[in-house]
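Q: Here's a chain of 940 amino acids. Please give me its 3D structure as tokens.
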Amino acid sequence: MGFPDWRKNRNSDPESSDSSVNERLVNGYGARQNGFGQSLYGFLQRFMSGKRLDGGSRTEEEEKVYSWLYTIARTHRDLVFEYVRSTERGLSFHEAERRLKENGPNVPAEHSFPSWWQLLWNAAFHPFNLILIVLSAVAYITSDNPNGCIMLAMVFISVSLRFYQEHSSSKAAMKLSEFVRCPIKVQRCAGRVVQTELIVQVDQRDVVPGDIIVFEPGDLFPGDVRLLTTKHLVVSQSSLTGESGVTEKTADVREDQSTPLLDLKNICFMGTNVVSGSGTGLVVSTGPKTYMSTMFSNVGKHKPRDDFGRGIRNISFLLIGFMLVIVTVIVLTCFLTSHDLTESFLFGVSVACALTPQMLPIIVNTCLAKGALAMARERCIVKGLTAIRDMGSMDILCIDKTGTLTMDSAIIVSHLDSWGSSNEKVLKFVFLNAYFKTEQKYPLDAAILAHVYTNGYRFQPSKWKKIDEIPFDFTRRRVSVIVEAETDVEDNREEFIDRYVITKGALEEVVNICSLLEHIDGGEIRHLTSDDLQRVFNKAEELSNEGLRVIGVAMKKLKHRRGSIMSDEAVESDLVFLGLVAFYDPPKDSAKQALWQLAEKGVKAKVLTGDSLSLAIKVCKEVGIRTEQVITGPELELLDQESFHDTVKRATVLARLTPTQKLRVVQSLQTVGNHVVGFLGDGINDSLALDAAHVGISVDSGAPVAKDFADIILLEKDLNVLVAGVEQGRFTFANTMKYIKISVIANLGGVLAILIGTLFLKSEPLTPKQLLVQNFLYNLGQIAIPWDKTEPDSVRKPQRWSEKGLPIFILWNSPVTTLCDLSTLLFLWFYYHAYRSDDLQFFRAAFFVEGLLMQILIIHLIRTEKIPFIQEVASWQVLCSTATISAIGIAIPYTPVGKVLEFAPLPLSYFGFLVLLFLGYFTVGQIVKRVYIRVYRRWL
């Protein structure tokens, strides 16, 4: 079924608009062509287009859902049946079957996920991969099989890794519809003449709008439901809000527009469940038109752009364009001088290979895999390798409060009498209640027992005997135990037995059954006055504002006649109010230190929670998060877009947020604030934000859906693990960028020298096989870069891909490399007169060794902003790999391999020139480096 446009009437009076609303609904539902199919087609079109309103706004589909539910909530119950074309008896089996065919299965929006071959095509269709595929094909055509095999192997590794990651992500999104499937009791009517109402059980997928459902404790709501009848109904909405508490619902109310959507008393939402009570409800929305479905409909569609991947793609296009120009000039030059098209073309392909950073996929993935292993040692599982790199760029971390900043457990902070003074008697009786309570043990009971045992109180529960218990329920919101003291039962001849009823629970519920108060002076029992009540509630409010959870404690002495039976109502009446007990979920000892370390590294923390604002503020103050700028979800709803983005930017604590609001906060930080955002959450309600964040982080104990959408899973709820992850991400990013800059500068500088040499000599400075061997050795020398050390400055602040940074870096540093290569050409020309055809073997051997050593030395110059080998030395892995490759390169002209490559041995005088050349290169390169750092305030 489609949604009428209610936005124009949202502020109108519901009584005066009922008839016009009804008319529009009937026409909207019955007269529209293709009905649900048309609306679903439009929904999928918007889904595929990926268009969305700005961060602070609701989408068109969300706006329709909000308007529809508010209209239903404001309308009289009897008129709602007309809105969904149903009756008080329910739908007939035939009508329900027809609607099921029309609307489709009742599941969250079933998106069209890409097939495996589409994912494989997307993984392979990348400029860098296309370069290698084309070059490998040309290599095979020109009988250069070894080089072709190497390039295809690199393509295979790169495509396989990307395909695996994207396929895993797609499978996670498909699991959304699984967590709400369950059998539902539905009222249907049967009979042609005399219709009979039947209660039947159907699968959740078969529920349709207009069905009347019957629910009991433990049932899930199969759609958005307008309540018809209720009896002490209490519902858990934690799947939508993230709050562990419950909310009361009732059918006997008509809401207004000012009530927040999730606080509507007469509406229950798909995916929420009944905690206690029972009732009936009319299903008004199913499938993709429910609040939960529109909430999750954005999953996978608004993942932030990958600046690093986009940068790599742009560099690839730049290299392609540069390659086409250079290779064309070189091929034409060689052909005009040698008139051998095949040889000229082969040399052009070799130059293209030399210009391509062939080790890029292996180096990048090796850096990421190394980071994943390091994080695994910190008890952190990485699902998506690129998340490690994003961790290094992250500058804002959005975190939930419970279990992340806090212990996710309760401790007693105070036990106070009615005047706010600490009172051991209050603690004694609340302890006896918790000790003898047997049904439905809660964390608060464990907190009470732990406080008594660890603080040395001796209340001697062995001297008491439990007689009975009135268990907790969500209507009374209290629990009572009846106990006897051993001294009271020693004389079995007594007609009356002294027993005590001890009650604890929600303060207002406990106070409602109290009529007496124990006075602060002398323990005198007197009547509970209105002034006493005001004082108690003021104290409770004061404690609540400090972020504490407060319960009330009461008791009374029963004069019980042997053999008589007292009702629960009689037992829980005219009690003596004793006082208050305040609990607190304390922050973790490690949280403050971890947040301080993150702040030192340039990562700001924002708390996004569904809990109350006062509790969030108290926790944040204790762990060092500033609380000058705070806001709640309902307040965010009232802001326009500009105010929304400005508030999100400034606020550090955002409480009472719905899942959709968490999503919008994350998107606002990404799009308007231009931040790299991480989100740490573990509930179903966090799935939207986890999916949208650059880095989604969950915990091993989190909900399955949350773990599916997370990029990183923590085996411990400890922020210190994230500190280690941020450091590792920055190490990975630094080494990856180090390789890219080194490789592009070395390749570009060398190819420019070859181009100039070709034009100058009218012949190739190196033959194709010589150039390919040089390129192969250089690539081997770079393979140890993932194990290189990084300087402290490179991990002190978030690292991000800069669109302009890499081209500027190349323009500053490539000319230095080209200048040294040209100096070698001039030296060989004028000193050795190696410009005749019979000297080409010597010339090419000298140029081969110089080019290889130059590329190796570039690694050491570029990898640090300090003076290489003096102020900063590379890791032993890099030293070993570069030294080995340098030795091999120098030795080749003197070996049989050199003869195969048509090299001549080099005189010692040439190596003296190389020493001077490289000293000059390091000097000029270091000067350029210092000037660059002074201008741009950074190096890598």
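Q: Can you summarize the key feature?
A: The chain has five domains: 60-107+182-297, 116-178, 330-374+726-936, 397-406+588-715, 411-584.
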